[in-house]
Design goal:
globular, 8 strands, alpha/beta, 121 residues, Transcription Regulator spoIIAA
């Protein structure tokens, strides 16, 4: 497991094709930041990639970034860990806007369950 810290997020590489992303408190993820993360993942992981978004902090995505996430190729599955009703609601909204609601994205309230689901994909 390798950990990389950026000004806006921490990325943990769990396996050769699985990464965890923890966006820092108060960050607004825009298209440029999403692209930066995506290019980092492509450079450091085998494709297709499984992603775990661990919503430990309160943060947001611009509308354009939400849409952009829906068209990124080489993403096998996305698990989002939401720790409360508001976090779950936000995760559901982002899933709808991104257009990735065809079964390869799920929202969980338990970290270990989300991680195991990704490993089984």
């Amino acid at each position: 497991m390798r950990t990389y810290t950026f000004s806006f997020a921490t990325i943990i590489l769990h396996e050769e094709d699985l990464a965890e992303i923890i966006v820092h408190e108060g960050v607004e993820m825009n298209v440029d930041l999403v692209e930066k993360v995506y290019q980092f993942l492509l450079s450091n992981l085998k494709t297709p990639i499984s992603l775990l978004f661990n919503r430990l902090h309160s943060y947001s995505y611009s509308f354009e970034a939400q849409q952009y996430m829906g068209i990124l190729p080489q993403i096998r599955a996305i698990a989002q860990v939401a720790y409360g009703p508001r976090s779950t609601q936000i995760a559901e909204f982002i899933t709808k806007v991104s257009g990735k609601s065809h079964g390869n994205i799920r929202i969980f309230n338990a970290y270990e369950v989300a991680l195991q689901w990704l490993k089984n994909q």
